[in-house]
Amino acid sequence: MNERTIDYEHAGEQLEGFFAVDSTASGPRPGVLVSHAWAGRSEFECDRARDLAGLGYAGFALDLYGKGVLGTDPEENAALMQPFLDDRPFLQSRLIAALDTLRRLAEVDSNKIAAIGYCFGGLCVLDLARIGSDIAGVASFHGLFIPPDNTTGTVIKAKVLALHGQDDPMVPVEAVNALEQELTDAEADWQIHVYGNTSHAFTNPLANDPEMGLQYSELVSKRAWRTLENYLEELFA
Question: What are phi and psi of 212, to 5 degrees?
Fold first, then answer.
């Protein structure tokens, strides 16, 4: 496995992504962005990039907050995330900077790109689709569905997959219905998988706060990852 950090820049901010690829394979292969949860680019996202490399892709865990910036508690995490929720065009431009960085890497087939994201990162990859990015598809794991206010009328080119827990308190049924309508109006090829008796953050082994609606599920996490594997195979066939 070839692993390295990738320095890049956006709006004067120095950013550091994590890249993983199978060093035994030759030639460009499909690239998959991994967009982090509200704490920042952590070992969790780096592990997902490694997992993707093990499947034959090039995994790139992007950085939204700045080189070395990582929240340590919910208050810090919220403070890091909120400015991006308040300025979605800025968030989208930072995501494009990560996308462009991935496309330029020698090991990556720039014509075969997808993006996955977790929690806040799920919202991020949905935004990549919402702005009409020319990528094959996006997959949101227990992502936030809050729509931006700058994409009305945009045709979504990327396929969209959302993997959602029915008991997620941050994304009520009304938000799911609204996303379905939004994606339909944008002419997207979309699918939403809803897992019963499943809370927010179901892929994160450290999530263990049922009162807050945060609960890891090993079973659902495995189901969702298998769904992603099938989805990526379809995207890059």
Answer: -90, 0
Q: How far apart are CA 19 and CA 46, in angstroms?
A: 8
Question: Per-residue b/e over 30-40, b at no fewer than 16 CB within 10 Å?
Answer: bbbbbbbbbbb
Q: Give the model confidence (pLDDT) of 146-202 as tens digits.
A: 999 999 999 999 999 999 999 999 999 999 999 999 999 999 999 999 999 999 999
State the Cα–Cα distance between residues 163 and 144, nearest whole angstrom. Answer: 11
Q: How far is CA 53 from CA 20, 45, 109, 186, in A?
A: 6, 13, 14, 32
CA angle 131, 114, 196 (to 5 degrees): 90
Q: Taking a C-beta distance cutoff of 8 angstroms, is the pair 30, 113 a contact?
A: yes
Q: Say whether pTM exceeds 0.70.
A: yes
Structure tokens at 198: 């499943």
Measured CA to CA, the distance from residue 202 to residue 182 in angstroms comes to 25
Q: How far apart are CA 45 and CA 118, in angstroms?
A: 9
The CATH code that applies to domain 2-235 is 3.40.50.1820
The residues with which 59 forms a beta bridge, in sequence order, are 20, 32
Residue bearing tokens 């431009």: 93
Domains of the chain: which residue ranges? 2-235
pLDDT band at 61 (very low <50, low <70, confident <90, very high): very high
Q: What's residue 131's pLDDT? A: 98
- What is the predicted pLDDT for the residue at 88? 98
- What does the angle CA 146 – CA 148 – CA 151 come to, to the nearest 5 degrees? 135
Q: What is the mean pLDDT of residues 34-54?
A: 98
